Amino acid sequence: MPDVSRSDRDAWLEAVLEAHGQALGRLAASYAKDLGEREDLFQEIVVAIWKALPRFRGECSERTFIFRIAHNRGIAHLARRRMPSAGVVDELDVQSPGPNPEQALSKAQEGQRLLEAVQRLPLGYRQVVTLTLEGFGYGDIADVLGISESNVGARLTRARQMLRQLL
Amino acid sequence: MELDTELARWQGEWRAHEVIPPSLARRVERDTRRMRWGVAGEIAVTVAMGGGSVGWAVTSRRPDVAILAAGVWIIIATAWTVSILLRRGAWQPSTTTTAAFMEISILRCERGLQAITAQALLFVPILGFDLVWLYFYRGETSVWTFLTRPAVVLIAWVGTAVAAAGALWYRRRLRRELENLLRLRRDLEGG
Predict the structure, then answer these.
(1) A129 or B17: whose pLDDT is higher?
(2) Mean pLDDT of B112-120
(3) Which ipTM score applies to this complex?
(4) Structure confidence at residue B34 (pLDDT)
């Protein structure tokens, strides 16, 4: 799409947000814990997607293209921070109590707990997990991140083990 | 099957997160404008300094002004050459994958640090040339008197101190960003 008019780009962005806005918001949340920071990152992602549109040549699916940009913005966001988010490996709180069956959590609360656990995963695992949770297959994840499918599988297996410990 | 059920449950919980998209239009406008101003600014400085000095040399027909114009153009050519060399290969990643983005981000940070050093090295001869030229152009007789004139103190000495402080601050920021990127790359590779 080499010659894209401003109005075409705006319309495309609107369609992208309609289709993937929620997923992009959740992706931003996996990179930024603080709500304001999350909103800033989400805005950065959307602006980056808007700017990148003229570079989209259709070599991959639109969804892959969008999520590549989104993850790249997430990395840039982490790089600019004073304290990069720490990996989970040495921070695992294995003693934390599991869910109390008598006080069943609502789905939203469970979602929040899952998000907090995902945020604590090391970056390489976190990226694979968030894409999996958004319904991406191994091939698509490999395409987004530029790694092999077998690597995706290995990371996902390890990430799930960690998530189980964290939840 | 147990694992697939687990994944399906996590997917359901994950997608239960509702996100309220903030207003984006203003941000898009502002960023686009800033990008355009950045490019326009570089060109404007080249045209104003280079064009202005040549214009002055042509209209005044004075040899000292011609020397100034030549000096300005040598500086402009050097600055653009250094800038192009440092931006070479750092414009866009070969693909948009995360791995490629990580590499280009690291390269850009490293080039940014090199650019600060290059600018500092360029700044010394530029300042030296300007001061020497001004000294002779104004027909000054005392170096000390010239160097302590309020305008020279303000532009050359205070300006240099401010620029140096700014460069140090930016260098520190870039170094931190580079360290973070290298840490994130290790994190990614270890994953």
Answers:
(1) A129
(2) 90
(3) 0.73
(4) 62
Q: Which of B13, B21, B190 sits opposite A21 (nearest CB)?
A: B21
> What DSSP designation does A87 have?
P
Is the Cβ pair A111, B188 closer than 8 Å? no
H/E element, B59:
helix B52-60
Classified by CATH at the fold level, domain A87-167 comes out as Arc Repressor Mutant, subunit A (1.10.10)
Confidence of residue B59 (pLDDT cuts 50, 70, 90): very high
- Model confidence pTM above 0.90: no
Instruction: Determine the number of helices (DSSP H) and then strands (DSSP E) in chain A.
Output: 7, 0
Interior CA angle at A36 toward A33 and A42, to 5°? 80
Query: What CA–CA distance (Å, rounded) separates B109 from B87?
Result: 11
- What architecture is the A1-85 domain classified under in CATH? Orthogonal Bundle (1.10)
Pick among A72, A80, A130 to test the B interface (most B CBs inside 10 A): A72
From residue B162, alpha-carbon distances to B84, B92, B156 in Å are 26, 32, 10
